[in-house]
Design goal:
12 copies of one chain form a homododecamer. Chain A is α+β, with helices and mostly antiparallel strands and about 70 residues long. Chain A is about 20% helix and about 55% strand. Chain A contains 1 helix and 3 strands. A 3-stranded antiparallel beta sheet of chain A has the order 1-3-2.
């Protein structure tokens, strides 16, 4: 196996429905825009509150992909 | 835009059903008791285990609101 | 109440469906193999991405149980 | 069991005698002033030194209590 | 010297002009609304960017005050 | 000196009397149940509060011992 | 509101004059070179010292922008 | 692929020769004593100094293995 | 000296031989693919274990380069 | 009040009796050897275990003193 | 270039005027008292509050200098 | 055994050859200049890159020694 190199970048996925869905949305958008992603790691979970209810979940993730592919 | 000031306090929301639901329960209770909340940030996710099953999720969050509203 | 002592160990639960499910799977397997668990605390949430979609969630947790039971 | 919500606030207890005593003093004062407290967690231990001796221990703690009680 | 107890809360001060000014604004507003404050500690410095310029600085601070005064 | 290997595990010692005593209780129980321990390191100090008084100190520690003894 | 995705990258702004100015310089350069930025968060403040005086402030920041704009 | 569960434990590998060798020694000893290991993660690098020279490197690692294999 | 701006990105270098070699491999690949790099900072050291031996070292690094060059 | 400057150094105090005593011993020795100390802050609490009992507490502290006195 | 060694120590600079000024004051005093300093890194920003106004900024910094110069 | 006190200071060792060598160089220089050192702990590993190659490794370490010897 050759010595692979990976790059890691940070994204924020969002969803009104929950944390899992925010992860899926962020991974899906970043896959379109960036590269073929291999893994993610959650860095932070935040969100907006409107009239006593969670209106939006925001999940900051590191995502990694092969640099030399 | 005037120079707004916000206050942040920490709450623990709980639920038998999952993390998203514990966040929603905590935000809802804190909105009644405290103030009109603007955002949350997850600090810790813990829970109780009973007979090999998760019986309760506990999500510690920071919640922020306008101090001068 | 006597002075109880607890032990904490670290596990990784996995699921294709989401974070809550990965926690439940890890807690269930660890309860079989280790001891009667009392609580968990999430340490890290990661996962694999395959063709632009999350294929697997991995949740690292600390789990605690009575040492002297 | 209903879905309880807790609030966490941060206090600093002090004592000339030691860490345990500073915790007890802080918990006792905060119980008078704030609410019926359920748990504490030590965040930081500091103190003043005067003429080569510790003159005061300061223990910063998070204390938690039921919000909806 | 009696055994004083202090309480710590978290605020966010804001300013279009810079970090020092955001601290001053936050401390000033919190002094009106909360209590007689004794000290602050910066936790986080963030801000908004609009058309390539910093439009607002946001400084999250812990502020401490005597609980038993 | 051969190349020794050590293992580290995490325990929680408890006591109604104070932090030092909780450490001693945890170390004593873990020495019975686990192995011949060589060192400890405090990770977290928490406790329960009952009617405005500390009812129990809980000290989470890492404890280390020779793996190959 | 659609489910927006953001990307976060890290930059270092510098200035001989102070922290606020280093932030402004970094944000301004990065806005030219990268994308339309929405927010920043200070990660680290360092600097060079020459003959007993600060010769340069270096502020490491995370900056975020819409990925799907 | 079934939902695998992993366990993580912490070890300290040592060597007079360097960090890589301390990792290899720790992994080798732990593989004998514990289980079939899958991965490691370095937590801390320390060592002893004797007469101005490094006499021993100590590398604390987390090591992971399948719980349900 | 003008006010330079730098950008920092995260890469993972790998090697079967050791940590220094994984750093060198990652830096070399990233220099081809990205930009003229100025410095690196190690963030994490992990690796795979196969049949009781380290089969691969993975070193996550931040690497920095001039944005405005 | 002139603009005072302080210096902070790190010491380890030890005691067979407990954490408070280890702090007092370290502060007392450092006051002899170093300078007139003003404050301390606990960084780490560790200790040795011998035959199932704590034989020595080690408390790492930062201690501060006026540089320009 | 020979293999230089540097030493890092921690200082606290203070000022009634702001963070930049506290850094400059601390660096200036430490340059007189200690050694020829090469760089600084901010560790903590705190301050005193008096009658609702910031009366003093305190900036804790690590400062580095050549050991073998 | 009397109650020993230790002091900890921070150094940066450098080498063109690798991390182990940078540790050895730093420990050797600091032993000449400072005191009889007892242990080290790695805090940070960084380095310079020149034309796509690592030109210098910099290892920041805490080193400890007896204060009262």
């Amino acid at each position: 196996m050759p010595n692979r190199t990976y790059r890691i970048t940070e994204i924020v996925g969002t969803s009104p429905d929950g944390i899992d869905d925010a992860i899926r949305n962020g991974v899906s958008s970043a896959s379109d825009a960036l590269h073929r992603l291999n893994w993610f790691e959650v860095v932070e979970v935040r969100g907006h509150i409107h009239e006593g209810k969670v209106s939006h979940y925001q999940v900051t993730m590191k995502v990694g992909y092969r640099l030399d592919e």
